[in-house]
């Protein structure tokens, strides 16, 4: 370490991979020594959106990266705010370049990036950021987005050419830990998917080689989707995989596969992933307020008892409660269940999406801000351009968990009831109660609301709001800014 030694820094963010990493590929071609870093920023990790499950996944991913890095190097993974870290590092080296991948994050990371950009400018450091998964910074409309996205997906992947690397070595990085606080190893949990590229590739292989056959049939089923869906979402969210590499793998497989329909459906969802993040990139205020500004005046009084019942999985609607408990315990539920629980909260309980947005983000292992808030807006009916879908949890249980397997697994107090009563426990009679040793209202809560009444009320208020002239102007603005032309 010498203050006159010139180095570059690669800052890992939500791109925890070596392969097909545009920013890293550029960094390793530099003439300077390269220091790879990951920063656990206390101000961000204390934010209400993040949980130990996310930290554990990242920690496992960094361990995996360290195993894959050659030339006797490793990632300097420390606990520090960004600017203090680089101030200290600047006392030890002359930093010429910092490379990272663009992050479409929460307001807190957006503000951090603005402050850090100012720091780099003031200190004569060049900070180069690179596009992530076809999401384009600075767009004002989506007129060419579809074409540009496909062009990006069809570009050659960026292999990690280790022979060109010039990383700072193990010993020096170990010495640097004297100056910084190292990451602490998290507690182990077996019910969550494990982080790291090796795990990501294992899930990808099993999906493309076996589970793709069940994709279309299982995608809406709360229990079977755990097997039939790709389960790649956390590896996209934290960057163990790029969308491009998986897309290209699917394209190649489609040439020889018998499951072309399933692969087409899967590939369309890869594009949706980037599409929703692009919306958030262009309009990040939707973390806090309605997409269609006409809904800003909609009154939704906070009801803490409703919110507590919902977050505790105690609404009295078995499929809602099972889905909530499942995501708390495992970090995953399928798309339909995600949509249903948000619809139940925002329509039947008529609570604003922001009352639970951070809490729900903490539960999703695959928390991706753009998808999270884009979907919450859509399911709440706040876009003003989509049909308002008010999910009936009982009908969904009958359609997608007809044997009540998922319900009984995650709401064990209903496991002793026959299927029909597990789905609709309010139909338990006095004779049933005695026969099955089940006391409705005691062993399992009564329904928190009558969904026939709440559905009618929610639709009346939401569609009433949509009829205003302002709502129509907002609708047009959203269509012009965020809608992708068909041709």
Automatic annotation (TrEMBL):
Keywords recorded for this protein, A-Z: Chromophore, FAD, Flavoprotein, Lyase
Q: How is the cofactor bound?
A: Binds 1 FAD per subunit.
Needs which cofactor?
(6R)-5,10-methylene-5,6,7,8-tetrahydrofolate; FAD
Q: Which Gene3D superfamilies is this protein grouped with? A: 1.25.40.80, DNA Cyclobutane Dipyrimidine Photolyase, subunit A, domain 3, HUPs
Which Enzyme Commission number(s) are listed?
A: 4.1.99.3
Asked if Lyase is a keyword of the record, the answer is yes
Q: Which residues form the Photolyase/cryptochrome alpha/beta domain?
A: 6-135
Q: Name one GO biological process term.
A: response to light stimulus
- Protein family (similarity comment): Belongs to the DNA photolyase family.
Identify this protein by name.
Answer: Deoxyribodipyrimidine photo-lyase
Native organism: Flagellimonas maritima
């Amino acid at each position: 370490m010498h203050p006159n030694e010139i180095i570059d820094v690669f800052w890992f963010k939500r791109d925890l991979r070596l392969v097909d990493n545009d920013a890293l590929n550029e960094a390793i071609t530099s003439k300077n020594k390269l220091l790879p870093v990951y920063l656990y920023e206390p101000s961000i990790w204390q934010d209400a959106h993040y949980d130990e499950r996310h930290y554990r996944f990242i920690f496992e991913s960094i361990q995996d990266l360290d195993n894959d890095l050659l030339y006797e190097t490793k990632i300097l993974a420390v606990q520090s705010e960004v600017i203090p870290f680089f101030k200290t590092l600047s006392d030890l080296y002359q930093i010429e370049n910092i490379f990272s991948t663009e992050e479409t994050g929460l307001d807190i990371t957006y503000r951090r990036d603005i402050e850090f950009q100012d720091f780099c400018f003031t200190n004569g450091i060049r900070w180069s950021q690179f596009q992530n998964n076809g999401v384009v910074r600075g767009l004002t409309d989506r007129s060419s987005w579809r074409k540009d996205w496909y062009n990006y997906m069809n570009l050659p992947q960026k292999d990690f050419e280790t022979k060109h690397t010039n990383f700072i070595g193990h010993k020096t990085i170990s010495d640097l830990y004297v100056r910084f606080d190292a990451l602490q190893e998290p507690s182990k949990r077996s019910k969550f998917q494990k982080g790291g590229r090796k795990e990501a590739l294992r899930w990808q292989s099993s999906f493309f080689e076996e589970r793709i056959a069940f994709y279309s049939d299982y995608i809406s089923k709360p229990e079977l989707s755990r097997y039939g869906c790709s389960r790649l979402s956390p590896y996209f969210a934290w960057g163990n995989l790029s969308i491009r590499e998986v897309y290209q793998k699917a394209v190649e497989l489609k040439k020889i596969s018998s499951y072309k329909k399933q692969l087409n459906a899967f590939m369309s969802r890869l594009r949706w992933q980037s599409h929703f993040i692009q919306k958030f990139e262009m309009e990040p205020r939707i973390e806090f307020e309605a997409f269609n500004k006409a809904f800003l005046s909609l009154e939704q009084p906070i009801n803490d008892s409703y919110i507590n019942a919902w977050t505790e999985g105690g609404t009295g609607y078995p499929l809602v409660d099972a889905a909530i408990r499942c995501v708390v315990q495992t970090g995953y539920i399928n798309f339909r269940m995600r949509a249903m629980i948000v619809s139940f909260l925002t329509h039947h309980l008529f609570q604003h999406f922001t009352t639970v947005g951070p809490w729900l983000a903490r539960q999703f292992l695959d928390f991706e801000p753009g998808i999270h808030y884009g979907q919450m807006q859509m399911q709440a009916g706040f876009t003003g351009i989509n049909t308002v879908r008010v999910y009936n949890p009982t009908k969904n249980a009958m359609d997608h968990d007809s044997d009540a397997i998922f319900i009984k697994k995650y709401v064990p107090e209903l496991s002793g009831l026959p299927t029909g009563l597990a789905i609709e426990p309010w139909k338990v009679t006095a004779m049933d109660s005695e026969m099955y040793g089940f006391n409705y209202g005691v062993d399992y809560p009564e329904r928190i609301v009558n969904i026939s009444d709440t559905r009618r009320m929610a639709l009346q208020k939401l569609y009433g709001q949509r009829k205003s002239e302002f709502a129509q102007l907002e609708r047009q603005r959203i269509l012009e800014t965020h809608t992708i032309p068909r041709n």
